[in-house]
Amino acid sequence: MKLLIDAGNTRLKWCLDDGGLTVASGTGILDEDNPLSSLKESVRSVRSVAISTVASEHKRQHLMACLLNLGFPPARFYWSEQARGGLVNAYQDVTRMGADRWHAMYGGWLDHKDGFVVVDAGSAVTVDYVDRDGRHLGGYILPGLQMMLRSLRTDAARIWFDPDQVLATDPGKSTGQCVNHGLAWLSAAMVERILADVRWHGLADILVTGGDAGRLIGLGLTGEHHPDLVLSGLRAIDAEDASA
Q: Taking Cα atoms as reference points, which of 95, 82, 96, 92 lies closest to residue 134?
């Protein structure tokens, strides 16, 4: 079996792949002593490890050490590329693109050849457009919900607000409502822009992933929810390289 890992800034997702099928999956926190504590299967059954990560070098080293201490084989890290399988990156310097964005786009490209947008709603929200010819048209990086909440808590300490997520976008009538509705209002405006861009570029599909995907869908981002899109792309790339 293969162990596939999508490691973000603070959290990771993992899955065990057996012949292209997911037989187990879970999540973890990178800062924990064992970020893979939710993995209960025998280490001896894992023959290879493939990782997509945007974590800091310190956290990457911590993850590598953890894997080796648990007895896993040495991991292979996959990064952004200039091109693969007909998908072409818009970046001139692909080392500047987060690996998760490239792997999510490749995961989308495998099944959505009529053009698509990937919206990854994590700590930051990334938006990437790919046309039917496989050309990455570029994208956007915006602060995610939790990042905006932390900014308000840090830089506006005298503003009290309820941290619960809401989808209401009407004008608030208390400070708490003003903050929560304001965050939803900003996200809803982003959703409207994405929908307009999809029409402008003639793209067929909207693929939504990341921890806050459900929130954006609730705010009107009509699309397909693919919670494991990064892992799908990573799985395909690792299989292609293994068979080369």
A: 82
Q: Is residue 102 part of a domain?
A: yes
Q: Name every residue whose Cβ is closer than 8 Å to that of residue 156 and which is 6 or more positions away in sequence.
A: none
How high does pLDDT run on average in the chain?
93
Answer yes or no: are the C-beta atoms of 138 and 228 closer than 8 Å.
no
Residues 16, 70 within the same domain? yes
* Cβ atoms of residues 107 and 229 within 8 Å: yes
Active-site pick, 6, 18, 33, 100: 100
Please state whether the predicted TM-score (pTM) of the whole model is above 0.90. yes
**Predicted confidence band at 161 (pLDDT cuts at 50, 70, 90)?**
low
> Which among 109, 149, 103 has a CA at the least distance from the CA of 126?
103
Report long-range pairs for 82-91 (Cβ below 8 Å, ≥24 apart). 84/237, 84/240, 85/109, 85/110, 85/240, 86/134, 87/130, 87/134, 87/136, 88/134, 88/135, 88/136, 89/136, 90/135, 90/136, 90/137, 90/138, 90/139, 91/136
Q: Is 100 annotated as catalytic?
A: yes
179 in a structural domain: yes
Q: Which domain covers residue 7, as residue numbers?
A: 2-78
pLDDT tens readout for residues 65-107? 999 999 999 999 999 999 999 999 999 999 999 999 999 999 9
Q: How many domains does the chain have?
A: 2
What's the token pair of residue 9? 């800034």
CA distances from 223 to 70, 134, 187 (A): 39, 19, 15
Q: Verify that 70 and 190 share a domain, yes or no.
A: no
Whether residue 57 is found in the same domain as residue 131: no
Residue 117, beta-bridge partner list: 129, 206
